[in-house]
Amino acid sequence: MMTQMHHGHKPRKRFGQHFLHDQYIIDAIINAIAPQNGELMLEIGPGLGAITQKIGKLIDALTVIEIDRDLASRLKHHSSLKGKITIFQQDALKFDFSGFSKKKNQLLRIFGNLPYNISTPLIFYLFSHISVICDMYFMLQQEVADRLLAYPGNKNYGRLSVMSQYYCRMFPVIPVPPNAFIPPPKVNSKVVRFIPIRTVQQSPQFIYDLHHITTEAFNQRRKKIRNSLGYLISSKRLIEMNISPELRAEDVSVFQYCQLAEKLAKNDQ
């Protein structure tokens, strides 16, 4: 039940609000981020400012994106953040990260406690702006974090794993139990660090084909790829690429999915 008031604010279910209050977890996240003056720090979903306030004590300037009007107003008038904070009261899924970075002529360092209901769409949206991002630190539902970090052969390995590992190297930072939040969510959480892979410079057609081929493969994850992907690429062609047609979707590596997408992209040209 999201009826509990926290610092005078009632968490709003439609925004998926769970406010971090555990000081040990907060300090661990800030130590991992290690913010420095002169960096373009951007927080998504600062909420009541548990992390925001502490980072504000370490640096001179901080930008936040907060969709909740009341929370944005609270941060705007927070005495310890005055003169330091720039607030965009809007949906992060509509924010122009690339335009903001180019305007400031700096790469973005992004962090946040993401609402679980938008975490996956937001991560994919951020991947479309990956060229302007230095690194990212996100609090995520543990199930999502485990899928991001999974390797081939693992039950959690899927389309999200492939797409995320194509764009970034990822590392677990700290597990977070439900009681670290008010109100406590029904699931465990985990903070994950994302470091963009700078060699990722593929065409829109390649990205489309990588999305397409991973969707098709993992929609039928227990089928052998000669069946699930047979209409896209023949078994003969798979063998020529040193990819066994007998593999299932969960056994194909990120590199192999990229090989397949490259082949499709060339065929589409």
Question: End-to-end span in angstroms?
Answer: 53 Å
Contiguous helical run count = 11
Predict the CATH topology of the largest domain.
Rossmann fold
Alpha-beta classification: alpha/beta
Fraction in helix: 25-40%
The shape, in one word, is elongated
Q: What is the mean predicted local confidence, pLDDT? A: 91
Give me the CATH superfamily of the largest domain.
Vaccinia Virus protein VP39
Order of helices and strands: EHEHEHEHEHEHHEEEHHHH
Overall CATH architecture of the largest domain: 3-Layer(aba) Sandwich
- Strand residue content: 15-25%
Low-confidence stretches: 1-16
Give a short account of the largest sheet: 7 strands, mixed
Secondary structure tally: strands: 9
Instruction: Provide the spatial order of strands within the biggest beta sheet.
Output: 4-3-2-5-6-9-7
Name the CATH class of the largest domain. Answer: Alpha Beta
Total discrete domains: 2
Instruction: Please state the CA-atom Rg, rounded to the nearest Å.
Output: 20 Å
